[in-house]
Amino acid sequence: MSTTRKEQSSPTVTVEPGPLFGVARERRSEWARAWRRFSRYRPALVGTAFLILLAVIAILPQLFAPYAPNLAIPELLGAPPSWSHPLGFDEIGRDELSRVIYGTRVALVVALLATALAVTIGVLVGATAGYFGGWIDSVLSRIVDTIMAFPTLAFLIALVAVLGPSLKTTIVVIGATVWASYARVARGDVLSLREREFVIAARAVGATDRRIIARHIVPNILGPIIVLATLAVGGVIILEAALSFLGLGVQPPTSDWGSMLASARAYLQTYPHIAIAPGIMISLTVLAFNLIGDGLRDALDPRQRD
Amino acid sequence: MLRYVIRRFLQGIIVVFLISVATFGILHLTPGDPIFVLIGESGTAQLTTEQIAQIRHYWGLDQPLYVQYFKWAGNMFRGNFGESVIEVGTPVSTLIMQAAPVTAKINVLALLLAIVIAIPAGILSGVRQYSIFDYFSTLGATLGVSVPSFWIALMLIILFALKFRLLPPFGVSDWKGYLLPVVVLAIEQTAIIARLMRSTTIEALGQDFVRTARAKGLGQAVVLTRHVVRNALLPVVTVIGYRIAFLLSGTIVIETVFAVPGIGQLFVNSVYHLDYQVVQAIVLILSLLVVAANLATDLVYAFIDPRIRLT
To answer: Ramachandran region of residue A164, left (φ > 0), alpha (ψ -120 to 50) or beta?
Structure first.
């Protein structure tokens, strides 16, 4: 993070070479301003609070879940909500609330790891394409176009069908299909950064390409990438849920919101109550990420404001 | 303009080539022998070595990979998608032709519905920024992109099909059956188009030419229709062109929920039954559709807006 701060403000530094403490103050105010802009947007704060709560639930579900997620009481299968079981029982007699709570885990793990994978691939590919240009750029850009031409879900499903569904497959295939938009943004930003004074200066003092990309270019494109990633996490959560909903994601008996909706669909007529809570949780989680993303966009990337 | 068109076409051809390689490659991604993917690991266990060799030869798996690819690609582009493994003897192309019209119908209707709602709503939101209408439409758009469509589908089925019994819970035997799938498919598109239309309208309203138009005494209606909306629509048209890929993604889940006998359901069923010929063909066709739609969008855009051709 410390390199990010340093590099983020380096364009300002080159424009205004001042005494050391002056430069330091400049850095702090840049991030302080971003935080002020972010915290002014109330919905983003609500989203952040909700996500922190979800993260705690995902790390320690046993503190929140009243029952074991896989404990089935066959006599009570499909029983409607009651005081001791506020969301009722599912189609084989497990406590719905406990399963919803444990489901947080899969949703967040897939969302974060798949997004991290996608950002890593996307930034590497995009930065390389933008920095070197020429035929490297042409080749990488066509690969990006190709990935973007696949209807994401169709490509994902085909990959899962061959690799076999599991938590690991879900993370890897989602990460491997959604990186293209990061590459596109990274490439565009690098293309313009490449000609900036601080990059030329670094090259003049003999920095290697690797060092210039890693220490001067990448930190400067992180702002837009973070914004894009936050806004895209919601989409990843929906993709994961859709895969599980089709039975091609995390396998039973793991608690997962998408798979819970899949069983709900099979028993829609008899036990409609099990279709409600998992959908609300998916929606709220995606909404939280989208609100934070909107806030971050205003705070970090004023160009894209709408 | 001609140079731009030629360049975009060449890029498109390269992308089509890469798509075909990737689609072909999916089958070979499996950690084991692709023959396991075709007939299943347990299936291979029951066969003799000669039988396996025969099957390998039948599918051409005994040839070098690049030969296999060119044979496969040649067949694909002649429209010969092979035979379904599950519905034995039925050509894949027949299955796809049977399923395509329904999918085309619900997707076109959904896109039209989304455009008809989102564009006026987005313009009104942008023109009356921070009004009550803007507040609710922005809220609706934010929810529209956050709530998963298949869950909305389940809720609408519970409400309209099971509780009030107004609409059928699944199938498209009459027009009533189309109602829910089309509405559900349209929701996300409506939200995205409306959001974008709002922001481009706000941006256009701040432009100098709008001030000039006002200064020369034009009324609000003329300024909006002639100057603001015309300019604000441009980026929206491109995005609608690019949304095709997402629309087709959505149709896969929604057709499954509502048991619509279209491409989406055929695709998912083929995956369940490990009918890889069908899976490959559908991935290929859908991606080519997206490439064609994107190319058409780019060309239309470059035609309308000369600035694009230069970059």
So the answer is: left
Task: For A273, name the nearest residue in chain B, comparing CA atoms only.
Answer: B158
C-alpha neighbours within 13 Å on the C-beta side of residue A77: 10
The tokens describing A246, both together, are 């089709």
Considering only CB atoms, A234 lies closest to which of B146, B252, B276, namely: B146
Residue B46 neighbours by CB distance under 10 Å? 9
Position A1 confidence tier, pLDDT thresholds 50, 70, 90: very low
Return the number of CB contacts < 8 Å for A and B.
143
A89 beta partners: A95
Distance from the Cα of A275 to chain B's closest Cα (Å) equals 7
- B 104-143 residues inside an 8 A Cβ radius of A: 142-143
Q: Which amino acid makes up residue A235?
A: G
Task: Indicate the pTM of the whole model.
Answer: 0.87
Nearest residue, CB atoms, B150 vs list A160, A245, A290:
A245
Question: 3-class SS at A53?
Answer: helix
- What is the tens place of the pLDDT at every residue in B129-148? 889 999 999 999 999 999 99
Neighboring chain B residues of A306 at a CB cutoff of 8 Å: 195-196, 198-199, 202
A 10 A CB-CB count for B22 gives: 20
Interface of B with A in 154-183 (CB under 8 A): 154-155, 157-158, 162, 169
Residue A35's CB: how many other CB atoms inside 10 A? 11
B171: left (phi over 0), alpha (psi -120 to 50) or beta: left
Q: Do A163 and B29 touch (CB under 8 A)?
A: yes
Burial of A147 (0-12, 13-18, 19+ CB in 10 A): buried
The answer to whether A187 and A126 have CB atoms below 8 angstroms apart is yes
B299 touches chain A (CB under 8 A): no
The whole-angstrom separation of Cα B7 and Cα A217 is 29
Q: Using the CB atoms, write b or e for A51-80: b if 16+ within 10 Å.
A: beebeebbeebeebbebebeebeeebbebe
CA B248 – CA B264 distance, rounded (Å):
8
Rg (CA), chain A: 23
Q: What are the b/e assignments for A158-178, b being 16+ CB within 10 Å?
A: bbbbbbebebebbbbbbbbbb
d(CA B191, CA B185): 11
User: A278 contacts in B (CB within 8 Å)?
Assistant: 151
Token readout for B268 is: 């998912």
Please answer whether residues B145 and B191 qualify as being in contact, where contact means their C-beta atoms are separated by less than 8 angstroms.
yes
Q: Looking at the partner chain, which of B27, B198, B250 has a beta carbon nearest the beta carbon of A162?
A: B27
CB atoms within 10 A of CB B304: 13
Q: Return d(Cα B212, Cα B217) in angstroms, integer.
A: 9
Give the closest of B26, B157, B291 to A159, CB-based: B26
Q: What pLDDT shows up at residue B309? A: 64
Is the CB of A151 less than 8 angstroms away from the CB of B142?
no
Give the pLDDT score at B251. 92
The count of C-alpha atoms lying within 13 angstroms of the C-alpha of B106, restricted to the half-sphere facing its C-beta, is: 34
Can you give the pLDDT at residue B122? 94
Beta bridge partners of A294: none
Q: Which ipTM score applies to this complex?
A: 0.88
